[in-house]
Amino acid sequence: MSYAAHKRLAREQPVRCAVLTVSDTRTEATDRSGALMKSRLAEAGHEVVAYRILPDEPERIAALLEEWAGVAEAILINGGTGISRRDTTYEAVAARLEKTLPGFGELFRMLSYEEIGAGAMLSRAIAGVYRDTLLFSTPGSTGAVRLALDRLILPELNHLVWEIARQ
Asked: Most exposed: 54, 73, 74, 92, by fewest CB within 10 Å?
């Protein structure tokens, strides 16, 4: 069966999504990346069932992922993917993934390279599955969020959720 035929089998129902912004400084009023995630998901017909802003503290991120897994079918995280001392979101997410989608980070960095050049290597974008829930972790800039959503996440979200649920 071709990829296109396989993808057509995926359900076309709204996906229940949760959005997490990881930031020590953003508030709901200033969280442009979280707002972009929520609006793009809604425009695509998906349901945002939860939203939160947390500081980059691995224990708090892990506890929230535990709470949201199973409630949401996909959790989209923005922020905390860099290499500074405070950037620990990657570790919190990677430690929970039961299956990884290495192509997400690889493709994100490739597409980002086309836009910003060698600085794309600073991103530790990652995705995978935790307790039958998709996790996507992207950088926190609105440009990175837009790129990840428009070129990678939204075109495949229904298909990925269908792949997890069908087994």
From this structure: 54
99-100 and 126-130: which strand pairing? Answer: antiparallel
Which of helix, strand or coil describes residue 49? strand
Could you confirm whether domain 13-165 is CATH 3.40.50.1820? no
Cα end-to-end distance, the chain, whole Å: 18
Eight-state DSSP code of residue 98 = S
Cα–Cα distance, 152 to 107 (Å, whole number): 8
* Span 102-149, pLDDT tens digits: 999 999 999 999 999 999 999 999 999 999 999 999 999 999 999 999
Q: How many CB atoms are closer than 10 A to CB 95?
A: 11
Backbone angles phi, psi at 76, to 5 degrees: -110, 125
Alpha-carbon separation of residue 46 from 15, 35, 66, 74, 80 (angstroms)? 5, 14, 21, 10, 25
pTM above 0.90, yes or no: yes
